[in-house]
Design a protein that fits this description.
Layout (H helix, E strand, L loop, with lengths): L1 H5 L5 E4 L12 H10 L5 H16 L2 E4 L21 H4 L10 H12 L6 E4 L6 H11 L5 E4 L4 H4 L11 E6 L3 H11 L3 H7 L3 H15 L2 E6 L6
Parallel strand pairs: 1-2, 3-4
Antiparallel strand pairs: 4-6, 5-6
């Protein structure tokens, strides 16, 4: 993204699941995550503030949608939490949310500027929210690239082939200045660092190793579409 911005392109970073928790007590699982993150009920607002700083460091424009993170979403029928463990987060979209994909696709279709190029998560790691976003994006039938969800792709030692069937990869080089901006933008998320790394130094080492291994950032696109 930093490289695109240096070339004069306009880049927006959309956070789909950026909404606040619904009224009422948090689930036991959500509360345990807040404790680990050392955040209160306003964790989504804190994350949005972190994200605005990260976008500022990249030169990108942020946009936030009102859908809450999966750990806050509840059944419309009985109000019970839908995702109550790490296993459920990194699994299929809950059956109670079967209609959510279509609703999100409609919202995205109204918001996406004409001529925009989408970049969607591949869903490496299987996070339910990433699955939701990819499924909605694919209903739009717009030119779409897919990125490997980081750091899950590094933990899994690559992209599972079933996620890129019928796609072609392309590598977009990232300069030293771009890598520095990448690392600096991640440091804007102190509430999330502990979920993925032991320290900021470990984070920087991983980012630089990932970039060096791939000679840049690897994206995928359906094979019948040509890369620009």
């Amino acid at each position: 993204m930093w490289e695109q911005i240096q070339q004069g392109e306009q880049v927006e970073i959309w956070t789909i699941c950026a909404g606040d928790p619904p009224p009422g007590p948090l689930s036991a699982f959500a509360a345990s995550l807040h404790e680990r993150w050392e955040t209160e009920r306003g964790a989504p607002a804190e994350r949005r503030a972190e994200d605005r700083l990260a976008c500022q460091r990249l030169g990108a424009t942020p946009r936030y949608f009102n859908l809450p993170d999966c750990i806050y979403r509840c059944s419309p029928e009985n109000g019970e939490s839908l995702y109550n463990s790490e296993l459920e987060i990194f699994g299929e979209i809950h059956p109670a949310e079967a209609g959510l994909v279509a609703l999100l696709a409609q919202e995205l279709a109204q918001a996406i500027p004409r001529g925009a190029m989408l970049v969607s998560p591949l869903t490496v790691g299987g996070h339910a929210d990433h699955r939701l976003v990819r499924a909605a994006a694919e209903r739009l039938e717009l030119p779409t690239f897919y990125y490997a969800d980081y750091p899950y792709v590094q933990w899994l030692k690559g992209v599972p082939m079933e996620l890129v069937t019928g796609m072609k990869p392309a590598v977009f080089p990232v300069s030293e200045a771009g890598v520095a901006a990448w690392v600096e933008s991640i440091t804007a998320y102190p509430s999330q660092i502990s979920s993925f790394w032991f320290s900021l130094k470990d984070m920087e080492t991983d980012i630089r190793g990932y970039n060096q291994k791939n000679a840049g950032v690897e994206l995928w696109q359906c094979s019948e579409r040509m890369f620009d």
